[in-house]
Amino acid sequence: MTAVRVAVIGADGRMGSTVCAAVEGADDLELVERLDAGDDVAALAGSGAQVAVDFTVPSVTEANVHALIDAGVHAVVGTTGWTEESLARVREHLAEAGATREQGLGVLIAPNFALSAVLAMSFARRAARFFESAEVVELHHPDKVDAPSGTAVTTARHIAEGRAEAGLGPVPDATESQVDGARGAIIDGVHVHAVRLRGLVAHEEILLGNPGEQLTIRTDSFDRTSFMPGVLLAVREVVHRPGLTFGLDQVLDLG
Ligand SMILES: NC(=O)c1ccc[n+]([C@@H]2O[C@H](COP(=O)([O-])OP(=O)(O)OC[C@H]3O[C@@H](n4cnc5c(N)ncnc54)[C@H](O)[C@@H]3O)[C@@H](O)[C@H]2O)c1
Ligand SMILES: O=C(O)C1=N[C@H](C(=O)O)CCC1
């Protein structure tokens, strides 16, 4: 068995260092490069790396992915901050690169690699059509630079899709006046609230309400090792998935 050669970008960070350890602990993977701020992603072209894992910061991750496509390296991305527009640019770049390759390159971007979070997002989408009200509360460590979390943004979008498919209108909300931000950010009509608290890692509660009842879906990552099985699965899968894959639910076939 030949090991898949893996590079990690953001290797000195909380996630990147955990990914390096997970790759080093896997018999079928080989850690060949550790890059962090100041290193040239384009140089991976001649490094022998087949897959690069990006856990950096929202402001640089898209440029890293374009550089990886140009370098002919598959990408697994956990960094947040992706929009419909930035995803479309990656899709387009991959299509151009694929036209000149025998087997197209793969980019797999997932806002959350923890199985509990992937399932929570999937359950929320399925449950959304049955409830009048839906709100998302995400809770993270205070060193996180973006809010709301990428997971919460994706969860809100899933809920909005489920509601729209069922023909549900806006969530009920009689608020006429508020202190700025009191009702959270509104993403596709769903209110999203962000808590930052020392001691936390990554947590989310999805609240779904009807007259007289509530469904709460909660996911907790108590440790960054929770993300590693999903990251390693993505590394193994991306080489067989040309084009852009968004969300680990696609790999797990959750729909
Ligand atoms: N998808 C998931 O499952 C998941 C899980 C946890 C965190 N995240 C996301 O991953 C990202 C990183 O989180 P973190 O807690 O590891 O952050 P962190 O701040 O600990 O690490 C980021 C690292 O990226 C490096 N970096 C910055 N600019 C760079 C550049 N241009 N090139 C290379 N490296 C660069 C920094 O020096 C740092 O070492 C965030 O967007 C976070 O939301 C995603
Ligand atoms: O610690 C972080 O930062 C996390 N970021 C992701 C997000 O924004 O959804 C996933 C959870 C951890």
Automatic annotation (TrEMBL):
GO terms for molecular function: 4-hydroxy-tetrahydrodipicolinate reductase; NAD binding; NADP binding; oxidoreductase activity, acting on CH or CH2 groups, NAD or NADP as acceptor. It catalyses: (S)-2,3,4,5-tetrahydrodipicolinate + NADP(+) + H2O = (2S,4S)-4-hydroxy-2,3,4,5-tetrahydrodipicolinate + NADPH + H(+); (S)-2,3,4,5-tetrahydrodipicolinate + NAD(+) + H2O = (2S,4S)-4-hydroxy-2,3,4,5-tetrahydrodipicolinate + NADH + H(+). The keyword ATP-binding does not apply. Keywords: Amino-acid biosynthesis, Cytoplasm, Diaminopimelate biosynthesis, Lysine biosynthesis, NAD, NADP, Oxidoreductase. PROSITE patterns: DAPB. The active site is at residues 140, 144. It is an enzyme of class 1 (oxidoreductase). NAD(+) binds at residues 10-15, 39, 78-80, 110-113. InterPro entries: DapB_C (IPR022663), DapB_N (IPR000846), DapB_N_CS (IPR022664), DHDPR_bac (IPR023940), NAD(P)-bd_dom_sf (IPR036291). Its EC number is 1.17.1.8. (S)-2,3,4,5-tetrahydrodipicolinate binds at residues 141, 150-151. It comes from the Bacteria. Transmembrane segments: none annotated. Residues 4-113 form the Dihydrodipicolinate reductase N-terminal domain. Gene3D superfamilies: Dihydrodipicolinate Reductase, domain 2, NAD(P)-binding Rossmann-like Domain. Belongs to the DapB family. Homotetramer. Catalyzes the conversion of 4-hydroxy-tetrahydrodipicolinate (HTPA) to tetrahydrodipicolinate. HAMAP family: DapB. This is 4-hydroxy-tetrahydrodipicolinate reductase. It comes from Georgenia subflava. The lineage of its organism: Bacteria, Bacillati, Actinomycetota, Actinomycetes, Micrococcales.
